[in-house]
Write a structure and sequence with these properties.
The complex is a heterodimer of chains A (247) and B (226). By secondary structure, chain A is of the alpha+beta class. Chain A contains 6 helices and 9 strands; from the N terminus they run αααβαββββββααββ. The longest helix of chain A has 36 residues. Classes of the chains: A alpha+beta (247), B alpha+beta (226). At the A-B interface, helix 1, helix 2, helix 3, strand 1 and helix 4 of A face helix 1, helix 2, helix 3, strand 1 and helix 4 of B.
Chain lengths: 247, 226
């Protein structure tokens, strides 16, 4: 077979792949789209702040994407590096071990999946304290701390990997993890000894306040053992500007 | 034979690609939904969110720069530079993982009074939020997997009993950290409101030395996804 028909067939296949991808994308993007109610233009400073937040969030997403790309490129370059010496090999092995510990590698294994959310109760009694009906940043922190205390090996909240610099906090009613806005329901995944994680969570003394609120006010709280789940890699920064090795 | 199967194969490829496209669009739409979620926060809270995002993005940009330097060193096949880049990367990950003793400027907070482990956990969270790069509690390095727990009346940090007064040390930008924890309505303000007898002292330090995290990291159940 000469090269020309092969080439044209390759071109044809590429065209098909591209067309399929595009069609699928357009199809799903159009699916069930209701005309967005366009919000009236407002010139208040409140609107400006919200715009700034969205712009910064777009920038955050773009930077995270760039970091992911550079990290995979770097891993590929290091793997392909023809240069091999005992020193380099040892360094590469150390580096990989540190990356796993730091949360820069996606990991899978048995564990537990928790689903938490605000109360589904629709008609609140008069004078109800709204705080009882919503899930707070500290609820998620308590769960995450409990999971580490049960020897979890990797933890993520709504696909945000929990690492050494991760803060879980709220701004208004929005819960943030790794400076990223989360939307409910909150899904917390932990890899580790599934039985141990489950037993700790089931213990009446664990998360007593949260469980009581789930019972009385209808907060969503579900925990289920998983034979296998995947916890994604951390997409953020480990850049250090102030801390250096002591010696 | 090849020719007979060609259309079938192409049909399959097209279907697979179509489905991939559907999945891609679904992910894109989820992301778009989160973006469109109205930001329900007061102007002050929104300003706080903006500040956090600005600082967070600056950290991300600095990460991009460091990674680009490493990639360039590799691409240029500069042995010395790539070796140096690897060593630097190793060092900063060891700092993040608490596996080297670190030195740097920061803030030291002393909490003298009856406080709970939850308060200590919240303090650690607040320091992370303020961009602390390394934290220790009563001379014990705190990492992601650190366990600060109550055992009866005792406070146990990664298996070691600690007693008050509690000393938190955080390496990072002293101004940012101090402002974050001492602002009105901030964590120290709230804690003083809760515990009337609590004595709090915050001080800048030019040079803090934080110890190594000693509890071994274990990955028994988790396997790396390749």
């Amino acid at each position: 077979m000469n090269a020309k028909p092969m080439l044209s067939r390759l071109g044809w296949n590429i065209a098909l792949v591209a067309a399929g991808l595009l069609l699928g994308f357009i199809f799903a993007a159009q699916w069930n789209i209701t005309p967005e109610t366009t919000q009236p233009a407002s010139l208040s400073s409140r609107e400006d702040l919200a715009d700034t937040i969205r712009r910064l969030e777009d920038e955050q997403t773009a930077l995270k994407g760039r970091i992911a790309l550079l990290r995979s490129e770097l891993t590929r370059l290091q793997d392909e590096s023809t240069e091999s010496s005992e020193l380099l090999d040892e360094l590469a092995a150390d580096l990989e071990a540190q990356r796993i510990v730091a949360g820069l590698r996606s990991v899978r294994g048995p564990g537990i999946r928790l689903t938490l959310g605000d109360s589904a109760v629709e008609n609140l009694p008069p004078n109800a304290d709204l705080n009882n009906y919503i899930l707070h940043d500290y609820d998620i922190r308590d769960v995450v701390n409990l999971l580490w205390a049960s020897n979890a090996e990797a933890v993520a909240v709504n696909e945000e990997r929990v690492v050494g610099t991760t803060a879980i906090y709220c701004v208004g009613n929005t819960i943030m993890v790794n400076d990223t806005r989360l939307s409910p329901p909150y899904e917390i995944k932990a890899i580790g000894d599934a039985n141990k994680l489950d037993a700790t969570l089931a213990d009446a003394a664990s998360l007593a306040e949260l469980k009581a609120r789930a019972k009385v006010y209808g907060l969503q709280y579900r925990a289920a053992q998983q034979a296998e789940l995947t916890v994604p890699a951390f997409q953020g920064s480990f850049a250090i500007r102030y801390a250096g090795p002591a010696k | 034979m090849k020719h007979r199967n060609q259309p079938a194969l192409q049909a399959i490829v097209t279907i697979v690609c179509f489905l991939t496209g559907v999945v891609m669009a679904a992910q894109w739409r989820t992301q778009a939904t989160i973006r469109q979620t109205p930001i329900l926060a007061s102007p002050v809270e929104q300003a706080y969110m903006v500040r956090n995002l600005v600082e967070g993005n600056a950290r991300l940009r600095s990460e991009v720069e460091q990674l680009e330097t490493q990639v360039i060193a590799f691409q240029e096949d500069n042995r010395q530079a790539s070796l140096q880049a690897l060593v630097e990367e190793l060092t900063r990950l060891k700092v993040a993982n608490g596996l080297v003793e670190v030195n740097g400027p920061g803030v030291q907070i002393t909490l003298d009074g009856e406080i709970s482990v939850y308060d200590l956990q919240d303090m650690v969270n607040e320091l992370r939020n303020a961009g602390a790069e390394a934290i220790s509690l009563n001379g014990q390095r705190i990492v992601a997997a650190s366990i600060v727990a109550a055992q009866g009346q005792r406070t146990v940090v990664d298996g070691v009993t600690v007693t008050g007064p509690y000393l938190l040390q955080a390496v990072g930008d002293p101004e940012t950290i101090e402002e974050a924890i001492t602002r009105r309505g901030g964590i120290l303000d709230l804690m003083k409101g809760t515990y009337s007898g609590l004595h709090v002292q915050t001080e800048h330090r030019q040079s803090l030395v934080l110890p190594v995290f000693r509890r071994p990291y274990q990955f028994v159940h988790a396997a790396v996804v390749r």
